[in-house]
Amino acid sequence: MTETAEKKTPLYDEHVRLGAKMVPFGGWLMPVQYTSIVEEHQAVRNNVGIFDISHMGQFIVDGAAAAAWLNKMLTNNIDKLDVSQGQYTFLLNDAGGIIDDLIVYRIAEKKFLLVVNASRAEDDFEWLDRHRPENLRLGDRSAHFGGVAIQGPRVTELFVDLPPRNHIVDVDLEGMSVSIARTGYTGEDGVEVFFGAGDAVKFWNAVSAHGEKVGIKPCGLGARDTLRLEMCYPLNGSDLSPERNPIEAGLAFFVDLNKPEFVGRDVLVDAKQNGPGEKLIAFRMTGKGPPPRPHYGVFAGGSRIGEVTSGTLSPSLNYGIGMAYVAAASAKPGTEIEIEVRGTRFPATIEKKPLYKKRP
């Protein structure tokens, strides 16, 4: 079996120039860190960090029936979106399992931008194209566009007239046509900016130079993971998968069961009415021991009740944190559990989400 070459974003050479440690991720070579994960994490919590998200997929759905079709393919309610608004949503298989979690933006009355996970982009496009009616256009612009996420409490000092939360606007910045969306994956204020691949280095360097006054730092996948875990934002491929549905994952808020029809709806109605067998919970380690990692066993009362899906040492909280699927009967916050690490069990407690609470 031949290994496929890892793809490179338009910013790859820039990451190498900055001394980033590059690792394979979702079929791409991406920076995991530039200096240290903790330093980059704290830059986002206190100032501003900039992440390359050019590896993410970008699809365009265009046509008179676009909204009606997307409402059948996605769990959230497209009809709630005015032009320039976006929402978090799920693409499900027929069994209600999560093919991908994504953000959909209504960029015109009959035109939508879907931003999908890098590792799922090809499968997403194939699934959507297979279900696409002939009178709709579905395009994949991923190879021609790049993107960055600029996250942190001082992001408002970098841009004039930012759009409201979950809105997207098209603007001209130093001769570059860019789309600025006020969304993110860190729990801080921030934007995700999309632009032509040819403008990627110019945009990155312009923002980096402009951001020196607010302490901007380039950030890699390591800080992205610790930041999102503190907020209990799920990671596709770890916390979300085709074998799990949004009800189990505790994300029913992004599922509109009032819609009469969408792929996987019947399964989710049943899970909502009868309750899921397992739930995705957040936990913290309460004693000394190694940080939790995926696939570690979760125990309560001497019995195995589940398995860790994500785990790390939290830079903001300074203790081990994670998420795990556990038996629904044992999923209540405050429940004392144990995490098994290489044959030894360490104490932990189930906590309310999110684990990190922003300072007022």
Can you say what the CATH homologous superfamily of the domain at 7-56 and 144-230 is? Probable tRNA modification gtpase trme, domain 1
Oligomeric grouping of the chains: single chain
Give the helix/strand class.
alpha+beta
Q: Please write the string of helix (H) and strand (E) elements.
A: EHEEHEEHEEEHEEEEEHEHHEEEEEE
Task: Name the strands of the widest sheet in spatial order.
Answer: 11-12-13-10-4-14
Total helices: the number is: 7
**Unreliable residue runs:** none
- Helical fraction: 10-25%
What is the end-to-end distance? 54 Å
What name does CATH use for the topology of the domain at 7-56 and 144-230? Gyrase A, domain 2
Overall, the morphology is globular
Strand element count? 20
Tell me what portion of residues adopts beta-strand conformation.
25-35%
Please tell me how large the radius of gyration is: 21 Å
Indicate the mean pLDDT. 96
What does this structure look like?
The protein is of the alpha+beta class and 360 residues long. Among the domains are: 137 residues, Gyrase A, domain 2; 84 residues, Aminomethyltransferase beta-barrel domains (Elongation Factor Tu (Ef-tu), domain 3, Beta Barrel), CATH 2.40.30.110. It is 18% helix and 34% strand. It is built from 7 helices and 20 strands. The strands form 4 sheets. The chain has a 6-stranded mixed sheet. Strands 15-18-17-16-19-20 form a 6-stranded antiparallel barrel. A hairpin with an 8-residue loop joins strand 12 and strand 13. The relative contact order is 0.15.
